[in-house]
Amino acid sequence: MHVLLTGASGFIGKALCRELLGRGHRVRATVRRPAPLGSSAVEQIVVPDIAASFDRRMLVDGVDAVVHLAAIAHRNASDFELHRVNVEATVRLAEAASGTVRRFVFLSSVKVHGEDSGGGAYSETDVLRPEDSYGSAKRDAELALTEVATQGGMELVMIRPPVVYGPEVGGNFLRLLRLVDSGLPLPLAGVFNRRSLLYLDNLVDAIARCVEHPGARGPLLLSDAESVSTPELIARIARVLDRPARLFRVSPALLRMAGAVLGRGGEIRRLTRSLMIDSSRAGRVLDWRPRHTLDEGLAETAKWFRSVSD
Predict the structure, then answer these.
(1) Percentages of the chain per state (helix, strand, coil), in multiples of 5
(2) What CATH number has the domain bearing residue 286?
(3) What stretches of the chain adopt beta strand conformation (E)?
(4) CB 18 within 8 A of CB 166
(5) What are the pLDDT digits (tens) for 105-125?
(6) Overall pTM > 0.90
(7) Which residues are catalytic?
(8) Each residue of 97-125: b (16+ CB within 10 Å) or e?
(9) Range of the structural domain that residue 117 is part of
(10) How many other CB atoms are found less than 10 A from the CB of residue 49?
């Protein structure tokens, strides 16, 4: 198949580009600036601003499927910029693709459901109740895409992953790797939550299946096969980094109070609350199972981390 991949030079985009090429697909990739994507076979189109005004038909001309990854996820991005890039640009691309492209695959986020699944796990039928501007933008994009796809008869798949980790990861997960590697004691032994994560290679395999599988439709929640508590995750990271897991007990309520005082309330809430995913629909629709375990994914992530930090 001929696939348009936006955001191809990002953390997920580079891995997905390799996956699609390895499965025999042709890839047209949008990048903000020329980037090494691992193969000269990739057709690169430089788009400095995916939300700018330009004729998007030249991006989708002749392609069978669009995989739209390009987005802003920065916590300090304004609501205006989040809407401009994550909603408006997404809708414009879908409108350009509608009528000529068979399938549109959109990388959304579990954040459309919220930040706390309580004692259960989110499923695709749960209410969309985002708690921050990023989640709200992804929800708004999903709703608008559904309308565009329905009007144009285009197949739409919306993937809602949790935290994605793997080689070249950044953001909060990279900060956690550095914290565990530092050997500093962490006050998280008293946290009894459960969180789902998704290894990068598992995600790109699922996205490729969404491109290929004739039954791929609608929203899909994806995660690794097991969920873990925050202290268990830290212990497993410590093990693959060959570091001791230094954990001591502070009540989650006190942690949240300290986080609010220090301006780190959001980070503490993510570390102490539960966010579990039921990915059984992806298993039924795509016949998909994570091809790597959590421990395998952490080991590969640690190997990369060591290679860039030693």
Answers:
(1) 45, 15, 40
(2) 3.40.50.720
(3) 2-6, 26-31, 43-46, 65-68, 103-107, 155-160, 163-165, 197-199, 218-221
(4) no
(5) 999 999 999 999 988 999 999
(6) yes
(7) 134
(8) bbeebebbbbbbbbbbbbbbbeeebbebe
(9) 2-165+197-223+276-291
(10) 11
